[in-house]
From TrEMBL:
Source organism (scientific name): marine sediment metagenome
Name assigned to this protein: Nucleotidyl transferase domain-containing protein
Domain Nucleotidyl transferase as annotated: residue spans: 2-245
Record-linked Pfam families: NTP_transferase
InterPro entries xrefs: NTP_transferase_dom, Nucleotide-diphossugar_trans
Length: 251
């Protein structure tokens, strides 16, 4: 199984910190935040390769980081041909570019590179197998309608199948939000290319999920513990504080 870390955004909300440095390489707890994700992936026996998807502007930053990091699994970069926010491919567009570049036609784990969480990825893989290889979206219960307005929100049935998904709704139907962590079957991976070929929105994965649930079975995996979606200075400081406080512990 291959794992993809999405790191192709320009993070303008974090300027000036991200003007010349990708968000995923900003320090959290004294080390680049992406390393927490990479280390979680490296502990999973089923994952044999990690691919980091980034852009031309930050390609050299990641090459330098990778030259100093000592991986225990094969890690490679795929660099999309964009240099700014206005010509970026978007999350789904970047996945489509990567799938074509690598000629992927297999199940994939996909994680946002600014998405720090406490749960063990082994539990996600087990859940994916339990659901017979159907597509999975990792969900987190914010327990707040107000906070849920800022995320993609899922509605699930009794069997945890996602029956509705809406991006940043004014009136969220639930407090279960998407956390930029997914398991896609080989059919789900092919559906990304179909979705893009139809001219659908390439920017946010939530729009793809909304499209996908009408065509394939997609289940929610609800996890607990700490979760940080690092998209602002406030969330960066909050994550840095917790990881610094818990340095040396397995989060």
């Amino acid at each position: 199984m291959k794992a993809i870390i999405l790191a192709g955004g320009y993070a303008k909300r974090l300027w000036p910190l991200t003007k010349n440095k990708p968000k995923q390489l900003l320090s959290v707890g004294g080390r680049p935040m992406i390393e927490y994700i990479v280390e979680k992936l490296e502990t999973q026996k089923e994952i044999d390769k990690i691919i980091i998807s980034t852009n031309e502007k930050f390609g050299e930053n990641f090459k330098h980081w990778l030259s100093e990091y000592k991986p225990t699994k094969d890690i490679s970069l795929v660099i999309e041909p964009t240099l700014s926010e206005k010509d970026k491919l978007g999350s789904v567009g970047a996945l489509g570019y990567l799938i074509k570049e690598k000629n992927f036609d297999e199940e994939l784990m996909i994680i946002g590179g600014d998405n720090l969480f406490e749960f063990d990825l082994r539990d996600l893989i087990y859940y994916y197998r339990e659901k017979k290889g159907n597509n999975i979206v990792a969900l987190y219960d914010l327990k707040s309608i107000q906070k849920a307005r800022s995320y993609g929100v899922a509605t699930v049935d009794e069997g945890m199948r996602i029956i509705d998904f809406v991006e940043k709704p004014e009136n969220p139907p639930s407090t279960l939000v998407s956390t930029a962590c997914y398991m896609l079957s080989s059919e789900g991976v092919r559906s990304i290319l179909t979705y893009l070929d139809k001219g659908e929105n390439p920017d946010t994965i939530g729009f793809f999920i909304k499209w996908l649930i009408k065509r394939e079975r997609v289940f929610g995996f609800v996890f607990s513990g700490k979760w940080f979606d690092i998209g602002s200075l406030e969330s960066l400081k909050e994550a840095d504080l917790m990881y610094t406080k818990n340095k040396g512990e397995d989060l």
